[in-house]
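Researcher: Sequence recovery benchmark, item below. Answer with residues only.
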C-alpha cells in the first residue's frame, strides 16, 4: 500500500485516516476514532516511537483530516485540490455535537487520568480538555453562556442557575462531550447538593 511507504507528513487526508476516497461517513468516523485513541497526547505507546511533538502533530492532522472529509462540501473541494483542479476555500470548524460520538469507558478513563468516572465539575472539565474543546466553543454549540459553563465546572453554587435550568445545561453539556446525560446530571446534582446548593 502506497500510504504505508510514504512518510506521514506527505500523506493526504485519506491516507492519514487510512480510508479510501469512496469511504462512507461511518467508515471515516470509525477510522478517526481509532487513530484519535492511538495518537492521543496521553498515549504512552506512541512515545516509544515518536517524540511528544510528533504525536501532537499527527493527532492534529488526524483532527483536520476528519473535519474536512466528514463534511461533503469540504470533501469535494479537497478532492479537487488534490487532483490539482481547485483549492480549499475554508476548513469547516469543529463541532462538538456533530464531530464527537459517545465516549467509550476506555476514553473516559483516559480523560480522567485513570480515576473513577464520578461526574463533578472537575471531571467534566477534564473531559472537555481531553477533547481539545475550548469552553467558548462548547457554549456557542449548546447555546449556554460561558459564565454558566464556568460555574458548572467550578461548582460555584452561588453562580449556578436554578435546578430547572441547570438540569438542561448539564444535559446539553454531557451530550456535547459524548457522555451519558442522565448519569452526568444525577451525579453532578447529588454532588453540589452535598455542598449546599439549594437554589429554587
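Model:
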Amino acid at each position: 500500500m502506497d500510504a504505508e511507504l510514504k512518510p506521514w507528513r506527505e500523506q493526504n487526508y485519506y491516507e492519514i485516516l487510512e480510508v479510501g476516497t469512496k469511504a462512507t461517513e461511518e467508515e471515516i468516523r470509525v477510522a478517526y476514532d481509532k487513530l484519535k485513541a492511538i495518537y492521543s497526547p496521553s498515549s504512552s505507546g506512541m512515545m516509544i516511537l515518536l517524540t511528544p511533538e510528533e504525536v501532537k502533530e499527527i493527532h492534529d492532522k488526524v483532527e483536520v483530516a476528519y473535519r474536512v472529509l466528514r463534511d461533503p462540501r469540504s470533501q469535494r473541494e479537497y478532492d479537487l485540490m488534490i487532483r490539482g483542479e481547485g483549492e480549499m476555500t475554508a476548513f469547516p470548524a469543529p463541532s462538538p455535537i456533530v464531530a464527537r460520538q459517545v465516549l467509550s469507558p476506555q476514553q473516559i478513563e483516559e480523560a480522567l487520568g485513570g480515576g473513577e468516572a464520578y461526574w463533578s465539575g472537575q471531571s467534566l472539565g477534564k473531559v472537555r480538555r481531553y477533547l481539545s474543546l475550548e469552553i467558548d466553543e462548547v457554549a456557542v454549540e449548546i447555546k449556554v453562556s460561558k459564565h454558566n459553563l464556568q460555574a458548572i465546572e467550578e461548582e460555584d453554587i452561588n453562580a449556578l442557575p436554578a435546578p430547572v435550568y441547570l438540569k438542561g445545561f448539564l444535559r446539553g453539556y454531557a451530550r456535547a462531550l459524548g457522555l451519558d446525560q442522565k448519569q452526568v446530571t444525577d451525579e453532578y446534582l447529588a454532588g453540589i447538593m452535598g455542598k449546599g446548593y439549594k437554589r429554587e
